[in-house]
Write a structure and sequence with these properties.
By secondary structure, the chain is of the alpha/beta class. Helices cover 23% and strands 27% of the residues.
Length: 201
């Protein structure tokens, strides 16, 4: 296809638009890493060091090397084309910060729910949140080193989610892997509306 020939003229160019995507999931599942891996700008992070006050509140047993936590949001940006941007908002994982989710979810096209197979139950609240509000979401299974691997069908059964909701095995440290997750979400969220087959360049 000759993309140059199909470029809109200045008179017909669509207005600038930003697509808002949420990145959700449990504590330490890789949300901050995902945003940092794909963002074209230096991501905005609101992380604080874990202190003794988090003992008994934040379960770090599966992420023993984690020393910080997101207390508000992570923010990153991707340019899809001139005048069209993807804004990524990483949500805080701990339940004491869930009151912020309603604000972050306003105007979102959809969400990525990150899951860790070592503690799959940690993503249940995010799945429930988006199901109850009718916000399209996909599940990205972050493949941590040393974690047991499962087929998507088994993960789907464990989560109890509908068969049409995509489940993607991913490594949020790898840009191409994150790109696949986001492309799958955008394609799924628009449900049949013609989209760029490679929206995350």
């Amino acid at each position: 296809m000759d993309f140059a020939a199909s470029e809109p003229t200045a008179a017909t160019a669509p207005p600038p638009m930003a697509i808002k995507i949420l990145i959700a999931g449990g504590f330490g599942v890789g949300k901050t890493t995902l945003v940092g891996t794909i963002s074209e700008i230096r991501p905005l992070h609101t992380e604080e060091f874990l202190t003794d006050r988090s003992i008994g509140i934040d379960d770090t047993s599966a992420v023993s090397g984690k020393v910080t936590t997101t207390v508000a949001l992570d923010f990153g940006r991707i340019t899809i084309r001139d005048g069209l941007w993807l804004y990524l908002f990483g949500t805080p994982g701990q339940d004491r910060f869930w009151f912020m989710w309603d604000e972050l979810a306003l105007g979102a096209l959809g969400a990525v729910v990150l899951a860790d197979t070592r503690r799959l139950q940690d993503c249940f609240p995010a799945v429930d949140y988006f199901e109850q509000r009718g916000i399209p979401f996909v599940v990205g299974v972050n493949q941590f080193d040393g974690a047991r691997r499962y087929e998507p069908s088994k993960i789907r059964k464990a989560l109890g989610i509908a068969p049409e909701i995509p489940i993607i095995l991913c490594d949020v440290r790898q840009r191409e892997s994150v790109k696949e997750v986001l492309t799958t979400l955008v394609t799924y969220a628009v449900k049949g509306v013609a989209v760029d087959p490679d929206p995350v360049g």
